[in-house]
TrEMBL record:
A connexon is composed of a hexamer of connexins. It comes from the Eukaryota. GO terms for molecular function: gap junction channel activity. Keywords: Cell junction, Cell membrane, Gap junction, Membrane, Transmembrane, Transmembrane helix. The lineage of its organism: Eukaryota, Metazoa, Chordata, Craniata, Vertebrata. Residues 134-201 form the Connexin cysteine-rich domain. It is a multi-pass membrane protein. Residues 42-75 form the Connexin N-terminal domain. One of its GO terms (cellular component) is connexin complex. It holds the Pfam family Connexin. The chain crosses the membrane at residues 21-39, 76-97, 118-143, 178-203. This is Gap junction protein. GO terms for biological process: cell-cell signaling.
Amino acid sequence: MSWVFLRDLLSGVNKYSTGIGRIWVAVVFLFRLLLYVAAAENIWKHEHDEFECNIKQPGCENVCFDHFFPVSHIRFWALQLIMVSTPSLLVVFHVAYRENREKHHNQKLYKNPGKIDGGLLCTYLISLILKTGLEIFFLVLFYKLYNGFKIPRLVKCDIKPCPNIVDCYISKPTEKMIFLYFLVATSCLCIVLNLSELSYLMFKYSTKCYLKRHVNKQQ
């Protein structure tokens, strides 16, 4: 899978972000995207082949694997990474719209098309809300799908066509658990960063509007 598009998207967003937003981009790029490409993808690469049950009944291993891993961890995280990064496109598109508008009218309409104010501020806030909502949604979905944030060494399966209760073993559970905790922790960190940036922007522009209104009343 090529991650060039996501890398370029994050680089583009970085130009229009606040200081907290740039930290979010760094966390996503360094601790999630690079970790995923460099390590996590290889650890879960052969998870189906390495899933073993103590019976060779045809079809038993497949149905047990499908039951305990309804969605591959690695594909789940890939989808999560893409989805939580996509709302940032709203900001990039809005800046592009401003630049095209200036080009069309052949005059300077904004002091800086990339400055977070007016309509772009609303777009930026919406993107933060969407990113936070998607992060929380994927964490809850993962918890529901896999019965918590854990990878057991042994799972017991009694689904047909298995003739009785079968013991199935997951390969490299400790290694997978370490990466699972790290990826969940970085996801939680991104939620905290998004909420911090959202609070910062709302406080900053609320204060700015209040002071402006106060000055107008004084005049």
